[in-house]
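can u do me a favor
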């Protein structure tokens, strides 16, 4: 019986101590990772809040633009031809005067 106890103490205890030490080191790595994850989590919560605020601002802007475009005054401006067309050209009255100005400049440069 004492021989078995001596063999266990000589061989078994160092093996158990090595396994325990390795487990403890892994646990420390895990805890270190948890602390880093908490910091990352805080940063993500802050970023989420900032994105929510920005999203709300953009929603308000879109609602404002929808209100402008859906208004009766906007339709009146379109009917009067005071708005730019989809091809980014100036309204008809202004477009003619711009062409006339270009022609006059060309004439001055040639003459």
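np, heres the sequence
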């Amino acid at each position: 019986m004492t021989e078995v106890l001596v063999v266990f103490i000589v061989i078994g205890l160092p093996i158990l101590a090595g396994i325990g030490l390795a487990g403890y080191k892994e646990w420390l790595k895990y805890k270190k990772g948890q602390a880093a994850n908490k910091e990352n989590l805080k940063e993500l919560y802050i970023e989420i809040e900032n994105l929510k605020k920005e999203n709300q601002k953009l929603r308000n802007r879109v609602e404002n633009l929808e209100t402008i475009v859906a208004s009766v005054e906007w339709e009146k401006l379109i009917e009067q031809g005071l708005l730019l067309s989809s091809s980014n050209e100036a309204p008809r009255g202004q477009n003619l005067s711009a062409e006339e100005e270009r022609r006059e400049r060309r004439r001055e440069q040639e003459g």
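Residues 17-70 form one domain. hope that helps!!
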